[in-house]
Design goal:
- The protein is α+β, with helices and mostly antiparallel strands.
- Helices cover 59% and strands 19% of the residues.
- The protein has 5 helices and 5 strands; from the N terminus they run H-E-E-H-H-E-H-E-E-H.
- The chain has a 5-stranded antiparallel sheet with strand order 2-1-5-4-3, sandwiched between helices.
- Strand 4 (118-126) and strand 5 (129-138) form a beta hairpin.
- Helix 2 (65-74) packs antiparallel against helix 4 (102-114).
- It is elongated and about 70 Å long.
- The two termini are 16 Å apart.
């Protein structure tokens, strides 16, 4: 059973964790809003990469749930695979009107239903590591310019940095909790 000090400490830690999570979510939302604004996009979503290389939808804007679910099932893994094969590529565009493209074939129905004409994946990287993927959706033709590539890469980098910082913070918090536990045991 926890004494009052331990219960108070645990309660504060839970509040801090919720505050951190909400703050991180606001940051992701702001970056995705910037993606829509500067890339004239009609939607954007961020999938973070877990330690086992699986992708987890972390934030999205202006995309219905069924579209996100379809992307999750049919788009993110092939794009992730392409990004791993060509780690220097700043963008992977899925040509939706190419009948020979297997990615496009699997999602053609949902993109036609939603009026999506452009779909691009941008790796979210920090030096030496890919931490996720930004997907940008256009419902009107959008020719990507060198400027767009630079902006998309920079915004994806912000998402990666936020993810890396959250992981580092979690690691430090875990270590601090272990040290506090060891210290408490030594005092007893």
């Amino acid at each position: 059973m926890l004494d009052d000090t331990e219960a108070g400490s645990l309660s504060q830690e839970l509040r801090d964790t919720e505050t951190e999570r909400a703050s991180r979510q606001r940051l992701f939302d702001e970056v995705l809003a910037s993606v829509e604004l500067v890339l004239v996009a009609d939607g954007a979503a961020y999938w973070r990469e877990e330690g086992d290389h699986s992708l987890v939808l972390t934030a999205s804007r202006s995309l219905p749930r069924h579209v996100l679910d379809t992307f999750d099932r049919n788009v993110t893994t092939p794009l992730q695979s392409i990004m791993q094969r060509w780690p220097e590529s700043p963008l992977v565009a899925a040509p939706l009107n190419d009948p020979d493209n297997p990615i496009a074939e699997e999602i053609r129905q949902i993109t036609e239903q939603e009026g999506i004409v452009g779909l691009a994946g941008v790796p979210c990287r920090v030096p030496g590591e890919t931490l996720g993927m930004l997907i940008v959706v256009h419902r009107r033709p959008h020719p990507w310019t060198v400027r767009d590539l630079g902006l998309a890469t920079g915004l994806a980098g912000q998402l990666a940095t936020a993810t890396q910082n959250a992981r580092l913070f979690q690691s430090v918090r875990s270590l601090a909790n272990r040290l506090a536990g060891i210290h408490e045991l030594s005092l007893r």
